[in-house]
User: Which sequence fits this backbone?
């Protein structure tokens, strides 16, 4: 390079002998003569007769460039290689050392050059395979020969370019169509340009759809809104320990943008993923505020822990509850082994990569967003009134010839007065306020970029005395230390406060507060004449709901989370870089429940108060160090390597105390204030670590043939000896068919890629921290000489060979884009075989201990994923439609010879309702098959076995008829059979986005088809007889029960003596839980810049939104979106509705302002 001038002829690198350097005395002469002479020689070439055709051919060649902060000289070198052309230019003229960011995927060369040179007004002229870069020729004056007086007069055009939310977009290229005259927008999105009348301005920006604006005259204060182009934004995606072009992926990776995550009103970023991605099932644990969400990537992969791994800014963690959706820039979900194997023993259930928002260079910009609204219960269950309830109970006693119980007069009075009674659903529920505000400030220079934000979220539940508050403070700073070294640090502090307990526990505590409200009879008022609580003498053993709701204010959970991450990037030499990241996560949890002493009556009392308080602390850290090497060859092939090492450690402790006779006074509600000697104290602790080495190699041959190989070695403290070390390999390959010559001229095919992958990953979280050790229980009593003494006994034998589960995954997929990327399509077929699944291995009876955990099980998931998206514009209307579909077949293939696993105990009177066995999916429903009711005595008499005996001898007309499944002539537990499961046949989602002028509309749908659910509430509400002398309320449809005057009904009769077993667990309680839910609808308006400029606001958008707009379902419970409540992570109870806190409908008004 020469001082002030250099001549560059860019093509594939020339040998040194062809490079000429000139001595300083010649530089002025060369500066003035050499370049014009070269240009003149090129222009006098006889071949210029064909320059137009040649120009068009050269400029239409497609190139791919993904660079950030590189010099124009280096970028032109890449373009020269890809397009097989040469650039001729003055380095001073074009600013060759100026660094720019360019991201283009299979774009015409002309489009890329426009983006690079429009701000500099550089023109280019083509001769065959040479492009000469130069300043535009000066305008010829009217006095010169060849006058241009007939050319249109240039007029001033000024305005601002904003995004859909009204935020100014800096760096947008503004170009006069058909010319190289242009400019770019400033830091606030403003622009000014001289453009000929009747010309067209073209606005283009990476990540946004290009827009054209006709110039009819001078104009000022224009507002140009660019719509987000999600295809461009997703061209580069985050993968494990790096980034990659989407076109280079051989694995199954799905992306979700920040705008999509913030569409739904939630504090949980996982819940915001629902309906967005094929192969990903998201289910709310509960509608209770702050309850969390369950996510399953490609189905349930084990009978143990199926949670995916989360990675936030390169740091692995087991939860992302410390984030808000607004904190996230992008989300990538890695689904197959080619994508997840680099995470080894933690990647079997998929990996969710989170990139949080960071500062951007420029003047400090403030962003204020917020919304407020209210929530309400979507529907109330149709229950009987007091008179209807009394009629059914009275009839039950009459049917069996029994006298009414002691509360008979109250029943008769309710019937006589046609009493409505108490609506306990209205008593319990409320309209709950929901609000969310977030303020961020970001800016800085290219050498130091920062972001500071604070957020507040509050949600009052639809059940009284339940709610959730969340505070989040985020800080991050990215610094360029030297030309080759970058560093950054980020910290997130979160404080959560949850109140109330709306979720049931299953087993001995099966009911939520809401379920209690459904069961209690409507005859009695919960309040006495003087406002005191009354005892329910009819539905005995049911608590006074009004008192129970009031008690929820004493149930509190508070936790704090500090998540910090840092990184150091070092560019060692061309193509080789080193990155070190360190992250630490501190979490403390403080649940506190106070149960006051009270007495309402003998059936509703608490003899002594109780305080249950737990405090726990958990710390985990991850330190990753890895090298990335990237080499591009002259034939446009590329080879890259990643090689690294990682160490992780997690440790924690907790203590829990149950203290009795603690004062009601809030200032004295601590354990030492207890006046009891029977307090119970428990403690726990753990410590574990993971040491890993990993590597990945990618080879890209001319953007056509792609090969990826990954290998990871993990060594964990969870296991012993040689089984604590595992190797996890994968291989993936892809063929970019659209880059083949035979498809180059097929204009409607933008991308067509086939890919396949195979590999294995692990699931160490399927095992407890000390699963290899024997389990001892200290709740043992030994008697010596008649005196009891506390003791210790081993209750489960150890298994030193216990190791992690392994998932072997095969995936075949296709990615396609048509019509200039307007239509995109992705399809994947996969198989995941879980081996060494941890299950209980039976031991001989003489051992006298529980079965031991062993790697004896196996599971197989096969599935199909489809995703389709179409975007286009009709005039000013821009629209985007997306749909996705997932079908998964889940089968248990081995339990190691052990017995089938029974679970799903809804009520002690019912017992287990699910079974997990070989040959079926996890947790299928197992019980009697009901076949309607006996409509008359003749049907009972005709239902006989081979010996002529009645199959159901205790039945009467109106009783349930059961299928004799095994054909032995009697109805017993041996007739239990498959009744369906919570595993759906398929799930689907759909989205619609519309933009017209300043208005926008969004809609998100989510559906589940072919799933069944066990309606736990129906065991009481659909009952035929009382449960242990307790008559709870009824579904209103029980009024259509069988009676002599209604003999064709399929609803069983009511009876006080159930000799037939009408209320056994059977298909009566298994319901169709398929549903289609409008998850969100939102309409917004972006205020015009002409209005905002008067108040110094850069952008503003207001919106109105509704969540859970409608749900189409046949399920009779509150909500078909079933979790297992207390057993959130227990797949063995999947689909059992213990009494879910339902999802609320939410109405919101919100805004977004930038200034």
Assistant:
């Amino acid at each position: 390079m020469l001082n002030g001038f250099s001549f560059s002829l860019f093509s594939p690198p020339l040998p040194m002998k062809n490079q000429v350097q000139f001595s300083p005395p010649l530089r002025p002469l060369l500066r003035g003569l050499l370049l014009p002479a070269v240009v003149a020689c090129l222009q006098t070439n006889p071949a210029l007769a064909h320059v137009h055709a040649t120009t068009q051919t050269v400029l239409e060649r497609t190139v791919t460039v993904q660079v950030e902060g590189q010099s124009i000289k280096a970028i032109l070198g890449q373009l020269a290689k890809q397009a097989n052309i040469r650039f001729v230019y003055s380095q001073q003229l074009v600013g060759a050392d100026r660094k720019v960011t360019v991201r283009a995927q299979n774009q015409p060369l002309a489009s890329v050059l426009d983006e690079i040179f429009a701000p500099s007004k550089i023109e280019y002229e083509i001769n065959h395979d040479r492009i000469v870069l130069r300043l535009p020729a000066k305008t010829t004056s009217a006095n010169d020969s060849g006058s241009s007086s007939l050319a249109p007069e240039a007029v001033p055009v000024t305005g601002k370019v904003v995004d859909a939310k009204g935020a100014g977009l800096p760096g947008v290229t503004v170009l006069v169509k058909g010319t190289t005259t242009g400019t770019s927008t400033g830091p606030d999105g403003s622009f000014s340009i001289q453009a000929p009348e009747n010309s067209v301005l073209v606005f283009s920006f990476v990540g946004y759809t290009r827009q054209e604006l006709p110039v009819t005259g001078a104009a000022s204060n224009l507002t140009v809104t660019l719509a987000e182009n999600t295809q461009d934004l997703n061209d580069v995606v985050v993968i494990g320990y790096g980034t990659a072009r989407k076109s280079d992926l051989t694995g199954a990776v799905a992306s979700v943008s920040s705008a999509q995550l913030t569409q739904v009103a939630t504090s949980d970023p996982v819940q915001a993923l629902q309906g967005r991605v094929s192969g990903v099932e998201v289910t709310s644990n509960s509608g209770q505020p702050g309850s969390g969400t369950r996510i399953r990537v490609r189905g349930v992969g084990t009978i143990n822990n199926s949670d995916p791994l989360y990675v936030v800014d390169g740091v692995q963690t087991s939860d992302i509850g410390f984030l808000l959706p607004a904190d996230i820039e992008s989300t990538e979900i890695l689904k197959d082994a080619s994508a997840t194997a680099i995470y080894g023993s933690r990647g079997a259930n998929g990996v969710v990569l989170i990139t949080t928002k960071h500062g951007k260079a420029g003047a400090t910009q403030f962003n204020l967003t917020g919304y407020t609204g209210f929530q309400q219960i979507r529907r109330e269950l149709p229950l009987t009134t007091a008179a209807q309830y009394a009629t059914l109970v009275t009839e039950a006693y009459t049917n069996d010839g029994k006298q009414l119980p002691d509360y008979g007069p109250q029943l008769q009075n309710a019937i006589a007065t046609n009493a409505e009674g108490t609506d306990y659903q209205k008593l319990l529920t409320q309209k709950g306020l929901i609000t969310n505000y977030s303020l961020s400030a970001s800016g800085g220079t290219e050498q130091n970029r920062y972001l500071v934000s604070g957020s507040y979220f509050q949600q009052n539940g639809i059940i009284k005395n339940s709610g959730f508050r969340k505070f989040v403070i985020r800080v991050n700073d990215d610094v360029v230390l030297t030309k080759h070294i970058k560093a950054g640090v980020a910290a997130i502090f979160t404080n959560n406060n949850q109140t109330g307990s709306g979720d049931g526990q299953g087993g001995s505590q099966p009911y939520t507060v809401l379920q209690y409200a459904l069961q209690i009879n409507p005859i009695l008022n919960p309040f006495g004449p003087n406002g005191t609580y009354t005892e329910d003498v009819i539905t005995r053993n049911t608590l006074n709901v009004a008192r129970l709701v009031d008690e929820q204010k004493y149930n509190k959970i508070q936790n704090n989370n500090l998540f910090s991450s840092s990184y150091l990037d070092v560019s060692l030499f061309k193509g080789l870089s080193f990155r070190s990241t360190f992250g630490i996560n501190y979490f403390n949890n403080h649940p506190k429940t106070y149960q006051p002493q009270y007495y309402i009556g003998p059936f509703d009392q608490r003899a002594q108060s109780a305080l249950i308080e737990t405090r726990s602390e958990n710390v985990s850290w991850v330190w990753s160090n890895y090298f990335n090497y990237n080499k591009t060859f002259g034939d446009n092939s590329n080879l890259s390597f990643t090689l690294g090492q990682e160490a992780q450690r997690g440790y924690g402790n907790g203590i829990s105390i149950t203290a009795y006779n603690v004062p009601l006074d809030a200032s004295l509600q601590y354990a030492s204030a207890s006046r009891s000697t029977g307090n119970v104290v428990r403690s726990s602790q753990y410590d574990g670590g993971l040491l890993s080495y990993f590597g990945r190699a990618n080879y890209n041959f001319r953007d056509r043939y792609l090969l990826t190989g990954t290998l990871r070695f993990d060594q964990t403290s969870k296991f012993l000896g040689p089984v604590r070390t595992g190797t996890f390999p994968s291989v993936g390959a892809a063929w970019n068919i659209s880059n083949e010559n035979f498809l180059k001229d097929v204009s409607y095919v933008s991308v067509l890629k086939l890919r396949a992958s195979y590999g294995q990953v692990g699931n160490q979280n399927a095992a407890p921290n000390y699963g290899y050790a024997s389990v001892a229980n200290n709740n043992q009593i030994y008697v010596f000489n008649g005196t009891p003494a506390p003791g210790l006994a081993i209750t489960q034998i150890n298994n030193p060979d216990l190791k992690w589960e392994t998932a072997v995954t095969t995936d075949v997929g296709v990615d396609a884009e048509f019509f200039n990327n307007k239509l995109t399509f992705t399809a994947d077929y996969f198989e995941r075989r879980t081996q060494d699944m941890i299950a209980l291995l039976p031991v001989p009876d003489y051992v006298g201990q529980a079965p031991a955990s062993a790697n004896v099980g196996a599971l197989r998931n096969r599935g199909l994923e489809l995703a389709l998206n179409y975007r286009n514009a009709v005039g000013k209307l821009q629209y985007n439609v997306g749909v996705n579909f997932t079908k998964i077949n889940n089968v248990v293939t081995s339990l190691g010879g052990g017995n089938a696993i029974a679970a799903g105990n809804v009520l002690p009177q019912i017992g287990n309702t699910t079974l997990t066995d070989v040959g079926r999916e996890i947790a299928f429903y197992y019980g009697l098959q009901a076949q309607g009711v006996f409509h008359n005595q003749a049907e009972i008499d005709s239902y006989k076995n081979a010996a002529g005996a009645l199959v159901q001898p205790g039945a009467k007309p109106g009783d349930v008829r059961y299928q004799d499944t095994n054909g032995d002539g009697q109805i017993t537990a041996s007739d239990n059979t498959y009744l369906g499961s919570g595993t759906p046949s398929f799930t689907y989602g759909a989205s619609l986005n519309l933009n017209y002028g300043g208005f926008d509309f969004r809609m998100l749908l989510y559906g589940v088809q072919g799933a069944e659910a066990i309606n736990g509430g129906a065991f009481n509400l659909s009952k035929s007889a009382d449960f242990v002398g307790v008559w709870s309320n009824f579904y209103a449809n029980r009024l259509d029960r069988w009676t002599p005057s209604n003999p064709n009904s399929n609803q069983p009769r009511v009876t006080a003596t159930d000799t037939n077993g009408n209320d056994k667990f059977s298909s009566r309680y298994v319901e169709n839980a398929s549903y289609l839910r409008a998850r969100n609808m939102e309409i917004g308006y972006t205020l015009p810049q002409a209005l905002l400029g008067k108040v110094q606001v850069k952008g503003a958008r207001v919106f109105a939104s509704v969540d859970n707009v409608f749900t189409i379902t046949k399920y009779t419970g509150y909500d078909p979106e079933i979790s297992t409540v207390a057993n959130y992570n227990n797949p063995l109870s999947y689909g059992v509705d213990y009494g879910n806190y339902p999802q609320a409908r939410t109405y919101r008004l919100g805004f977004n302002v930038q200034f």
In short: Residues 1-56, 137-149, 230-234, 504-510 have pLDDT under 50 and may be disordered. The radius of gyration is 35 Å. Residues 219 and 515 are 65 Å apart (CA to CA).
